[in-house]
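Thread title: Can someone regenerate the structure for this chain?

I was given the following input by a collaborator and told the matching C-alpha cells would be attached. They weren't. Posting the sequence so someone can regenerate them.
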Amino acid sequence: MNKLFKTLSFLAVIALLMTACGQAVQAAGSADNYQAVLGKSITNREVANFITSNKCSSDGPFQLCKNTGIALWLDSDQTVRSVYLYPTGTDSFVAYKGTLPLGLAANDTMATIERKFGQPQIAQAPQAGWESGLPEEGASPDHVHYWAIYKRFGVTIVYNSPLPNDQNATIYALIVNK
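Best answer:
Regenerated them for you:
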C-alpha cells in the first residue's frame, strides 16, 4: 500500500510539473508577451514559440499574427526589431487584446496621449503648468495615417488621421521598437 501511494504521489507530481511547464511555454508564446521577442532572432526558441502559438504567417520581412492583432518586423539579420499592435483591429487583423505599453488604452486620443507623455513645465513646480508630450518626429507616409514617433519611449503611434494636429484622432496601430 505504501509503495502504491509513493508511486501515485510521484506520478501526480510529474503531471503537475508537466502542466506547469506547458503553461510556461504557452505564456512565452502568448500575444501579451510580445516584449519577450523584441531584439531576438527568429531562430530563438521564444520567438519560434511565439510565432507558432500565435499562428503567424510570413510576408516578406513581417510575421503576421492576424488572429492576435500583432505583426513582427524582422530586419535583414532576421531579428525582431519592431512589434506592431493593432488595438482596435483592421481589415486584416483582429483587435489586439493584450496590455498596451506606457499606460496607453485603445481608445486614447492624440490629446490624451500627449497629456500622458507630457511633463511639468518646471520640474520643481508642477502647479506651474503642463507641457504636452509631443513626438520627436512625425510624418504621414501613406497620407492616411499620421505617425507620431516617440524615440524617448521607443514607440511610434500610428493615428487614424493623416493630420498631425487632429487631437481627436485615435490609435490605429502602435509600433514598439527595440
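The longest strand covers residues 171-177.
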